[in-house]
Amino acid sequence: MEKEEMMNVSSEAVADQRSTFPVDGVESRKDADAANGDDSGQSEPSVRRKDMLKALEAVERDSIAIAESYSSLFASLRSSLSEATSSTVDHMNCFSDAAGRLQECVLDASTKGNRYINSCLRLNEEMKGIDALATQLYPFFILSFCCLCA
Question: What sequence ranges are listed for the domain BLOC-1-related complex subunit 6 C-terminal helix (predicted)?
Fold first, then answer.
């Protein structure tokens, strides 16, 4: 029963299509001529039809120009993005190298700074003993200086 109903519906749809779309094209040509204002059956298109064709050509030219502009814009954007990406990668590599070298230099400088501080501390300890010796030798220094001057 359901199959029969489906067949009836599909046959009605086919019949509707045949009635709206003529096979021979005569009716559709008449409809197109009437829509364009060409009821008299003249061989040349009417002024209105010429104006429509000119407007259509202008729209088509403008559409092509716009499409070319967009194509050029997208190509330019793609190129700029590619350059920015590659330069960003180059900058990141350069930054990484510079950071690595800076880390090496900081490590080297801190090592040398620690050596310098340790040397200063050792010298300070040694100078404490020299101060006591200098106070002991001071009278002899003055005596020898006086002997040289005389």
Answer: 53-137
